[in-house]
Amino acid sequence: MNRAFNRKKDKSWMHTPEALAKHYIPYNAKFLGNTEVEAPKGTEVVKDAVRKLKFQRHIKKSEGQKTPKVELQISIYGVKILDPKTKDVQHNCQLHRISFCADDKTDKRIFTFICKDSESNKHLCYVFDSEKCAEEITLTIGQAFDLAYKKFLESGGKDVETRKQIGSLQKRIQELETENSELKKQLQELEEQLMIANVPPVGSISMKPQSTDIFDMVPFSPVTPLVPTQASNGCPPPPPTTLPPDIRKDLFGAEPFDPFTCGSADFPPDIQSKLDEMQEGFKMGLTLEGTVFSLDPLDSRC
């Protein structure tokens, strides 16, 4: 994986894969807020964001506002930020959108991560006070990212190019089916015009005998309906053969191929854009760092 774990390389992960894949790891923290940043990575980037949000929090504290408490739920599906009482989800940060995560090496409380917003595509820096669990939370996010990337590869991430080709084929098949429908419509219109041309005007009686071939047989016409006649022995004619229901066919008379209903290759029509987005995020990788955020007297407590 193209991650850049700049420290703690010798530390093993803290949780079992099953805990992050089938469940989630909860943490309680105070949420200082989030703010837009110019870059997806960088120590100085998050330092500036922490300073800004801490300053805003001190102003709100002087006005009597408390720092809101939140619950973090970390799993391979992302980092959810919830109200601890109502469990309402305030933010849902998918792991492939998280590019940088850092904690304070000095007071062990402050940690932050940068996540690309799913709607605005802006990079937002989230800052938390975690009551001396900052390093553990940072490592948990790193482990979840690692597991999510492996799951992405196992579940089809390697087949992105193949799925692109299937998507192109699907589009071409739809174009051929549209063309086929137009040709059928034109053929039906021509047959109707031909039938109208062979019908005599109303009120006129045609005395012209029906032409026959050299065997005194009425020539077959594709527009003449075949009507069962009474057999010479007086027995009723056999019932007409029932054709199977009309099956939608493509230009070559075969059932059109649908890659969205082809067994193990099932995936929704919009999966390509999702796969491209996830591939781009995982390729960028997640950087874990330890730094120092408490640089002035204002940073004593939030």
TrEMBL record:
The UniProt entry's sequence similarity note says: Belongs to the ced-6 family.
InterPro entries assigned to the protein according to its UniProt record, in alphabetical order: Adapter_Engulfment-Domain (IPR051133), PH-like_dom_sf (IPR011993), PTB/PI_dom (IPR006020)
The record's section on PROSITE patterns has: PID
Offer one example of a GO biological process linked to this entry: phagocytosis
Cellular location of this protein?
A: Cytoplasm
Which GO cellular component term is one of those annotated?
A: cytoplasm
Protein name as annotated? PTB domain-containing engulfment adapter protein 1
Q: Which UniProt keywords apply?
A: Coiled coil, Cytoplasm, Phagocytosis
Q: Where is this chain primarily localised? A: cytoplasm
The question of whether Transmembrane is a record keyword is answered with no
SUPFAM superfamilies given in the database record: Mitotic arrest deficient-like 1, Mad1 (SSF75704), PH domain-like (SSF50729)
Q: Which domain of life is it from?
A: Eukaryota
Pfam families for the chain: PID
Q: Which residues form a coiled coil?
A: 159-193
- Species of origin: Salarias fasciatus (Jewelled blenny)
Ranges where the PID domain occurs: 27-155
Q: Which gene specifies this protein's sequence?
A: gulp1a
